[in-house]
Amino acid sequence: MQDSRDFARLPIKELVVRCALPATISMGAMALYSVIDGVFVGYFLGETALAAINLVFPLFMLFTAVIDMLAAGSAVQVATRLGEGKRREASRIFSFSLVAIAAVSALVALLAFIGTKPLLTLMGAEPAVVEQATTYLYILAASAPLCLTFFATDNYLRICGWQNYSMALGVGVAVLNIALDYLAIVVLGWGIAGAAGATACSIGAGAIAAFLPFLLRRTELRLVRGTIPLRQFWRLAFNGSSEFFDNTASSFMDLIVNTVLLQLGGTLAVAAFSVVMYLDSVVSMLVFGLTSSLQPALSYCHGAGLRTRTRRLQKAIMLAAGALSIAALVLLQTAGPWALTFFVEPGDTALMTMSEEALAIFALSYLVKWVDICVSGYFTALERPAVSLGLSLLGTLIAPLAALAILVPALGLTGVWYMPLCAGTLSALLSIIALRMAL
C-alpha cells in the first residue's frame, strides 16, 4: 500500500490480502516466539517456571490495559480523520497519544512493582512460584515505558500503509527474542530472569525501529506539537474502552481461573493450563492480527462515508477469521498431542496427561470464540464504543464467569476446560444478533 487512501480504492479481496497477510505473518511470528519461549521455559526450567509465568502474565496484561485503550481509541480517531481528509488533526491526535502512552507506561511499571507479590501470595501460590513470578514481572515492568509503545506504534504504521514494515518488525522482534531466549536460558543459565530479559530487549529494539519512519518524516502522520481538547480525549479513551475492559476482564478472568486451578489441582493444573495457553496464543494472535489489521480500513471507509464498502469489508473479515479458527481446531485436534511434547520435561507423565485432556476440550472453543472478537472490533472501528464494550465484557467476563460457576461444581477440573466453549457459544450468539441489527 502507498498510503491510507488505498483503503477506499483497492478491491475488497485485494485490500484484505494486503492488510491481513502482513499482519497475520507478523502475529504468526510473535505467536511462534511465544510458543518457543514456552518450550524453553517448560523444557529447561520446568513446571514451577511454567506456572509462575502463567500466574503473572494476566497481571502484566491487566497493568497494560490502559495502554491498549489509548492505542486502540486513538487509532480509530486517526484513521477516521484521515478518511475525512483532516491530516493535520490526525497527526495531532497521534502525537498527543504517544506522549500519553509513554506517561501511563511509567505508571504501569510503578503499580507492577507495588502490587505483584501481595496479590500472588493472596491467590495461594507457593513461595517458589511467587519468587519466580515476581522476578519475571519486575523485569518486564522496568522496560514498560519503551516496550509498550511498540505495540501502540504498530497501529499507526498500519494506518499509514506501512504494513510490510510492520510485518518485518514483528518477524524481526520474534526472531531476536528466540535467539536471546536460547542465549539467556540455555547458554548462560539465567533462568526465568533470562526469559524476561530476552523479551524486554527484543521488544525494546522493535520499539526504537518502529519510531524511525515517523522521526524521519516518511509517513502521512507527523510528530507535531499541541494537545487535543479534554472532551475529545475522553471520547478517544471511551472508544478504546472495549479493548481496555477486554484486557482487564480477560486478566481478571485468568486470575480467577488460576485460583480455581490452584484449589482443584495445584501447581500441576496451573502448569497444564499454561501449556494450553501457549498453543492458544498462536490462534488468538492470528485472529487478532487479522481483525486489527483491517480496523484502520473500516474506520477510514466509515469516515469517508463509504457505508456499503464498510459492510462488505466486515463480512470478508468474519469469513477469513472463521476459516482460520476452524483450520486451527482441526490442526490442534490432530497434531496437538505432538506439540505438547515440546513443553513438558521428559518423563513428566502427569503434566502430559492433564495437558492432553485440557487441550482436546479447550480447542473446541475455536468453533465460536472468533465471532465476538470480529464483531466487537467492528463496532470499535465505527466509534460505537458502548456496543463494543458490552460485547467485550460479555465475551471475556460475564459469560465465562457464569459458565465457570455452573460447570466447576458439576464437573470439577474438567469444567474449567469446557468453560471457553460454553461461554464462547453464548457470546457468539449475542454478537451475531447485535451485528445483524447494525447492518
Structural overview:
This protein has helices spanning 6-9, 12-45, 47-63, 65-83, 87-123, 127-142, 144-159, 163-187, 191-215, 230-239, 241-303, 307-340, 349-362, 370-381, 385-411, 413-438. It is an all-alpha fold. The chain has one domain. Helix 11 packs across helix 13 (349-362), helix 12 runs antiparallel to helix 13 (349-362) and helix 12 (307-340) runs antiparallel to helix 14 (370-381).
Total E-strand runs: 0
Listing every helix as H and every strand as E from the N terminus to the C terminus, the arrangement reads HHHHHHHHHHHHHHHH
Give the overall shape, derived from the CA principal axes: globular
Catalogue the unreliable spans. none
What summary fits the major beta sheet? none
- Structure classification: mainly alpha
Considering the chains and any ligands shown, give keywords for the structure.
439 residues; mainly alpha; 16 helices
Question: In short, what is this structure?
Answer:
The protein has 439 residues and is mainly alpha-helical. It is built from 16 helices and no strands. Helix 3 (47-63) packs across helix 11 (241-303), helix 5 runs antiparallel to helix 6 and helix 5 (87-123) crosses helix 7 (144-159).
Write the layout of secondary structure elements.
Blueprint: H1 6-9, H2 12-45, H3 47-63, H4 65-83, H5 87-123, H6 127-142, H7 144-159, H8 163-187, H9 191-215, H10 230-239, H11 241-303, H12 307-340, H13 349-362, H14 370-381, H15 385-411, H16 413-438
Helix pairs in contact: 2-3, 2-8, 2-11, 3-5, 3-6, 3-11, 4-5, 4-7, 4-10, 4-11, 5-6, 5-7, 6-9, 7-9, 8-9, 11-12, 11-13, 11-14, 11-15, 12-13, 12-14, 13-16, 14-15, 14-16, 15-16
